[in-house]
Amino acid sequence: MTKKTGWGLVVAAAACVLATPVVVWWLVGDLSVAAPPGTELDRAIHPPAIGEGAERAVGIVAGLVTAGTLALLVGASRRRRFDRRWWAALLPALVAGAIAGAGGRVVTAGTLGANIGAGLTIILGGPLVALLLLWALGWSVRLLLSRRSRSLT
């Protein structure tokens, strides 16, 4: 970040990136098929054993964190307290988190037979998430190094 950017905004950006996959996961919800009673569903990966109430609470908290931190960061950008160049790193990280959250629901969905969506999510979503995160990392390093070189001159 820049000299104008305080640690509070850095923490807000990190919290936003961490909360985004959770809120997307919660909003997508369980994608398992409706099966007759007593039918065992096939799963690529078993979902975490979380009760409905806990899932709702975690989802609501993650939604509030995401909305609050985004509002804080957008407001700080408008007041020029958050260097706008950081959005080029933050937005790909947020998109990667959203894809991971939705993909988590697809991969853990119970199906009758093969879960083709799980395979597609892994084959297409995995590399896309990796590319987005590599972009975010590369852009972040570039901004940090440019800041460092400016402070050395």
- The DSSP helix count reads 4
The proportion of residues forming helix, as a percent range, comes to 55-70%
Largest sheet: none
Strand content: under 5%
Principal-axes geometry comes out as elongated
| Whole-number total of structural domains | 1
Indicate the mean pLDDT: 91
End-to-end CA span: 18 Å
Supply the helix-strand structural class: mainly alpha
Strand tally, please?
0
SSE order: HHHH
Describe this structure in a few short sentences.
With 153 residues, this protein is mainly alpha-helical.
Notes on the structure:
This protein has 153 residues and is mainly α. The protein has one domain. It is 70% helix and 0% strand. The protein contains four helices and no strands. Helix 1 packs across helix 2, helix 1 packs parallel to helix 3 and helix 3 packs antiparallel against helix 4. The two termini are 18 Å apart.
Which terms summarize this structure?
mainly alpha; 0% strand; 153 residues; 4 helices
SSE diagram, text form:
Blueprint: H1 7-28, H2 52-78, H3 87-107, H4 116-152
Helix pairs in contact: 1-2, 1-3, 3-4
